[in-house]
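ok trying this again, last paste got cut off
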Amino acid sequence: MRMQKFRSSPAFVAVFAAAAVCLAACASQPSPRSARPAAASTTPPDTIIINTNIVTLAAAPAAATAEALAITGGKITAIGTTAAMQALVGPNTVSYTPPAGTTLLPGFIDPHSHMSAVGFYSDTAHWTDVSGANLLFKPLPGSKACTEPTNPQVCFIPVQTQDDVNARLTTALSQVDPSSLTPYVLAFNYDPARLGKSSGCSSGVSFQCTTFENGQALAQLNAISNQVPIMVASQSGHIAYVNTPALTLLNICGTPGAISGCYQPTTNPTQETQLANLGQLDEDLALYAISFFQTKILDANKGLGASLIQKAATIYAQHGYTVAQEGAAAASLMALYFSALDTPAEQAAYPLTMAIVAYDATSSDYTKTINAARAGRVLFGKNPLLNVAAVKTFADGSPQGFTAWLSESYLNLYNPFTDPNIFQQPYTGLPDVTQSEMTTRLTNAHQAGFPMLIHQNGDAATTAALAALAAAPPPPAGTRDVVVHAPMITPSQLAAINPQQVTVSFLLPNVYYWGLPECQQIIGAPDTVNMYPVATAAKSGVNFTLHTDSPVTPPAPLFAIWAAARRYAQQPSWYPNTNPANCPPTMVSSSGTGNQTISIAQAVQAYTVNAAWQYGMEATRGTLEVNKFADIVMLSANPLSMQDNVDQLSTIQIVGTYSQGRRFMNAAPTTNWPEQTPGN
């Protein structure tokens, strides 16, 4: 998913410009992330946590478990027995005993997602849910928490067909206030790949039926309304669909009625412009459309942006994160974080540390991304909760949207990707940038002091990304480049990666949500059954992490851990599995790369120890040890005890978290598990 780049409002421009002014003088200042921890304090601790089960994940000879720890100034200053911690207590020390049965682990570290989008999409006043996945952990109909069991804005009711999607858009249209400053219909997380049979479709599902992904989105959305702007964002974030009024507002160069100051596509502009005239916005145009309308919402509602950032952080903390990522942030989004966390009171209420990844999609000139990252570091200054961790580039798009760059043709293709007037045939997807351009971007980023995240999904994109990494100079000392997603990476490619310089981060929940559609319709069984070869990565010695890419999938680390250990592909009632022999519910095979399941312990380490290493935070986070930040997740049970019954992971509740020593308790989440998976 590419996160919103937000067109800059005047307030954002002003605050970010101030940071940019001092780039020349300030660019060499070290990031707060790189600071070494101070020595353990000898003063009485601020807090002791006692009489509980602590799993440190520390390497030997450090203790693997303990029953108590002490926190001073946001860091762990002692760890051991309850009696030992009580002996350190001073007159102002707070003593806390977690609920019986609680297990403490290092806080979950988010290797890759787009946190702000979770907050923005939770804004039911402006966004309509057309998802088949429970991104926001809504209660299920039939539960006490579901107060409106027929309202998908309140309870989780997955869309099953295109008819469901159209009905929700029509309902939203009836609620538009034409006198509002934002008289739009905006919908999120639409995914035609997961839709079942719609009316008028006698056989087949998803792309075999009518969807917006057929080269006729403009006409279909105009049929719903040709007066009110409608924009539908895909679940991958790589495609959006618009009607004529929305297309007119977006003012994309090369579309009817475009006027001076129009937006020029920056990725494959010829093809993107042709698609835009059909109402389909791919890659940077999708990002532009989402950000255009979201900015309209924020500009019309003062203070909403900061409150939605806080809401997203709360959702992440409720599911165990203590470090979250903003995975593709332009200058204006960084400025929003700065304004939302500018005062001590705002920082005190914020339950996470943010790792910001800079990316400017508005230009093919990558120096703009690097300059935005530099300005972000200056802007954030010494704010302990904000850090520009890396920069980003894209090699390609999304398999389920047919924009991933493959070496061979897709299993099946549908219009508009079969149109020879738009795409060269046979169609294999398109690269966002060439291998040589990726190498140049890596080189320039490293010279500027930043590691890079490279998004790639198709096998051709992965080949290009790894070649660029091999050709570029190493990342700055103490940092690592990240290969993000990598569903089709091969054993030989994993073996060739420099394990001291590169992390591979896998999107395992994709197996659950798209395993069946990708197997049956998009790339076929051989490339799907063993996609995301995390077990091979573990055997090869490559540092690997797991991520959710939220809002692509729900921001639930335990769910991603379950997906990595189980590899179950959802079998929706509305989307039949027509060939379980080729596309088994459990995506494992003895052929190809072999069984790619990993243990719960390996998956937990991917979200803690390995994730800290990915960021260069291993000296300060990832394990519970003296001198490290007191970033802690408190769980109702120990996930490491559930290897014999992996499905038990769905029963764990997040009791609360500590973020840099500050305690944030959960009223137990109504739903900690996003879907009805096997065993729950």
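PB: full thing came through this time. Residues 1-40 have pLDDT under 50 and may be disordered.
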